[in-house]
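Our platform keeps sequence and structure together, in a single record for each protein. Such a record has a labelled line for the sequence and another for the backbone structure tokens. Nothing more is needed to write down the fold, since each code stands for a local backbone conformation. For reference, a complete record is included directly beneath this paragraph:
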Amino acid sequence: MLRDYPREMKLSDGTQVVIRPMVRADGPPVLEFFLNLPREDRLFLRDDVTDETLIQKWVDELNFERVIPILAWVEDKVVGIASLHRSRHYWTRHVAHLRIVTALEIRQKGLGTILSRELCEIAFGLKLNKLFIQIAESQIAARCVFKRLGFYQEAVLKGHITDPQGKQQDLILMAQDVAQCWDTLNDQIMDTFADHSGG
């Protein structure tokens, strides 16, 4: 299914973006993307994404059987990264975890919805049944976005993460059925974008 990339799409303001899987040569622009994120955004990511060695390890050890990373580009700049993380365990082989991050200047233009749809399409093609995402309790905007996409709160892990100020926060797990996610995202794409595909 990754043979269908790259794909050209338009955001709600007409900005042209190119979506494609990450390749080994993408280390420097991916690092630049993370370095340009607001500090508060980076602090809620699992890894130190400003570590050049870590980013190089990511691109050197790409394994689409486990993690499928998708990049969004505007010209030669990465403006969004989304990844589908498949379970390593046999009994949860039908489940995948989503991670989506977008550049500050591109937000509220529909890129998050587009990237979510791309991951959902991949999950559908892999015959996965369930998607979930982990969000800190203070990330209210992100929770609202995924709620609009049909994700529902499935569990709360009390005091599971530590925020930038050293205060413990709850970690919220939101989930969605893959088929339902596919239908919801397609409806939202059709409602939001007059022309969302270009190739």
